[in-house]
Amino acid sequence: MGAVSCRQGRHARVAAHKQGGNIQGPWTRGWKSLWSGVGTTRSGLEELWGLRGHQCLHREPLEPAPLIVEKPLCEWPVPQFINLFLPEFPVRPLSRQQQLKILDIVAKGSFGTVLKVLDCGRKGVFAVKVVSKVKVIQRDTLRQCKEEVSIQRQISHPFVHSLGDSWQGKRHLFIMCSYCSRDLYSLWSTVGCFAEASISLFAAELVLVLCYLHDLGIIHRDVKMENILLDERGHLKLTDFGLSRHLPQGAQAYTICGTLQYMGEREELCPVIGRRKDLRR
Q: Where is the Protein kinase domain (predicted)?
């Protein structure tokens, strides 16, 4: 029976080819496939991100291309790859994701990629961080990823870039927040020097938000100008809680983390920095 079904499947594919339905192979990987998705709307943000394994049907130029629909949950091959990220990253039904449209790439780093997207249903612009599940497992950062979302769901402050939503696809995690077009570093690079009044305002708002976090037992551990966004009124929005930790009262964290360029040159960090420095000088 198996041999007969295989032959039938082969004959069906040959017949489809003769009728002009040329089936194309998997999408090209890399940035070229991503940019081909910019400005289009498909059912599921993960398809816009260029998942491999999908096949498209070539049609006449005047006929619109079909939507690429994600497989139902019951057909996913590795359920463990879903359970690992629950409950911080739930599985959303397609109706919650099919209205997202990629507008631009905001940033790309070792943590993942941040996309600027348009929610066509709510008619709002948001930022979505896309993180590969495989990289999370390979780098043993599962707890860190889940704690980032858990912490952002606990906090509510006018100077914190609050979490909008989080979910998972078959191969990626998605963290959606409101979109801010400028950060403190890019502003400083543009103007070259801040006025004293602006520095006083930035410092006051930063101290307020850090005191708020510390009262909740949360340490950010990666405060820098690139992680301080500015809203339309010029107020701060502290973002990127990827290295943050929630500690009970009296506990300490000993992991060396953060951005190397912003770290002080202390002797215990010499193996990381790659050079020695006498603390007495």
A: 100-281
Q: What is the pLDDT of residue 50?
A: 59
pLDDT at position 36, please? 47
Residue of 114, 130, 128, 133 lying closest to 165 (CA atoms): 128
Tokens of 85: 């990220």
**Whether residues 123 and 31 fall in one domain:** yes
Tell whether 141 and 189 lie within a shared domain. no
* pLDDT greater than 50 at residue 63: no
Q: What is the pLDDT of residue 52?
A: 39
Residues spanned by the domain of 136: 26-55+63-178
- For the chain, give the percent of residues with pLDDT over 90: 47
pLDDT reading at 237 higher than 50: yes
Same domain, 37 and 160: yes
Tell me, yes or no, whether 11 lies in a domain. no
**Using CA atoms, how far apart are residues 137 and 208, in angstroms rounded to an integer?**
35
Residue 106 DSSP label: E
Active site residues: 222
Side-chain-side CA neighbours of 252 within 13 Å: the count stands at 2
User: Strand, helix or coil at 149?
Assistant: helix
Q: How far apart are CA 179 and CA 229, in angstroms?
A: 9
Q: Are residues 101 and 170 in the same domain?
A: yes
CB 49 within 8 A of CB 34: yes
Q: Which residues pair with 131 in a beta bridge?
A: 173
